[in-house]
């Protein structure tokens, strides 16, 4: 049995645009649930952020401990910033998914691709720069047995990167599509 794509717009059921739409929607659902969980169960991950920033479960190397942030106000502000970033990324990705669904049928997926790119890059900044680099390296999160989120950050960064590649390839070889202003 062979699957054929209709035309060059990828709008057929087997097309790359359809794949990009589904994967974008999956990431949108994931980060929306993460943000929702952080809002409705604020205390659990607030403790995670507090321990990472305080570096209280690391090796306590005096050469690194000057980096620790022990102010509860600053720790909580950082956590609220993460939740806000997650929430905005979720909204952008949900909007991109909706545009894929509506505009993908007519081949006008350019705006959907742009929004998906922004949302996916937001995810990569959060998990790559925020958790993997700053949390993992600057605050030595990798040293903590209890509060180490490096593996999850890398997993999210790589997953999002794969989706971003699919989104970008879904527009390869096409003339630029007009977008709404």
From TrEMBL:
Source domain of life is: Bacteria
Keywords assigned: Membrane, Transmembrane, Transmembrane helix
TM regions (residue ranges): 20-39, 77-102, 114-134, 154-172
The family database entries (Pfam families) matched by this protein are listed as: DUF2165
Q: Which InterPro entries match?
A: DUF2165_transmembrane (IPR018681)
Q: How is this protein named in the record?
A: DUF2165 domain-containing protein
Which organism is this entry from? Answer: Streptomyces lunalinharesii
